[in-house]
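Consortium newsletter contribution from the modelling node. Members have asked for a concrete example of what our holo predictions look like. Here is one, prepared for the nicotinamide-adenine-dinucleotide complex that several groups have been discussing at recent meetings.
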Amino acid sequence: MALNGKIAVVTGAAMGIGKAITEILVQNGAKVVLLDVNETAGKALMETLNKQHGQDRTLFVSCNVESEQQIKAAFQKTVETFGGTDILCNNAGILNENEWEKTVSVNLLAVIRVTYLALEHMSKLTGGRGGVIVNTASLAGIGPLPSCPVYTATKHGVIGFTRALAAASTMSGYGIRFNAICPGFAQTDLLSNMNNKLGRFSHLADATTQMVEKLGILNVSEVAAPVLELVTDESKNGEAFMIFPKAKQYVTFPKVSSSG
Ligand SMILES: NC(=O)c1ccc[n+]([C@@H]2O[C@H](COP(=O)([O-])OP(=O)(O)OC[C@H]3O[C@@H](n4cnc5c(N)ncnc54)[C@H](O)[C@@H]3O)[C@@H](O)[C@H]2O)c1
Ligand SMILES: CC/C=C\C[C@H](O)/C=C/C=C\C=C\C=C\[C@@H](O)[C@@H](O)C/C=C\CCC(=O)O
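And here is the predicted structure:
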């Protein structure tokens, strides 16, 4: 299988999109370390997948991606258990315009923090094997959602960080590809509780609901398949992959050059 012998780390792996990403990576041969704050769901998923695919195929590590110490410990446990990291999916994320500092902390600062710690293990410049990092952004990272401007900002930031790291990696020789997925609305806990998390923009909830009705709702397996494409296609680096129900499209970004 395509990912035989590969070791993956997935954040926010216990539920929703992260659970679907974990499942497709295991189904395609990878060993996966599941990082999440939800220990009950994370351990249950580990036990289910190990029963289905073999006792050494997954490991759950309780980890809050806001904690440098917990992330360092998780990567160390990954090395001790499986010998290294080839694939990282920075997927953990929240939506809460009331707690907007926490939203920035989890959705953007933690993506940066986990990525920089992963580089120490994955980069060919520091003894790693190289690999691929896929960051979970959103369509809100391409088109702004007026009802959740801070969430929108974090996802725009994830895309910019991903594209800059992709270029830096090529120029530096890390041997790591960086890509982002930009899913539309997907049926998860994040979406199902959205109306009570819009804070001062709650008056825009109806507009958001109309947007959900217009765009439709993805099931999480429709999000996981494009992640597998970005992981396995060695030509993909610096991509933002938009995912709609029944359609996927790579973003074409404008070139920045003087108009002269
Ligand atoms: N659901 C959507 O409509 C949608 C669309 C586009 C992008 N996204 C993004 O997909 C990602 C996953 O979201 P989801 O929809 O699956 O939500 P979800 O709430 O179902 O799952 C999020 C998972 O992340 C975990 N998590 C939250 N904070 C954490 C932390 N500090 N440390 C470790 N784990 C943490 C949760 O415990 C949970 O298991 C997020 O980045 C989200 O922004 C979601
Ligand atoms: C409340 C947000 C729920 C989930 C966030 C998740 O990341 C999914 C995002 C999916 C789609 C985003 C689409 C963005 C579209 C914009 O370009 C623009 O067309 C939206 C305009 C009005 C929407 C009203 C609103 O929600 O603010």
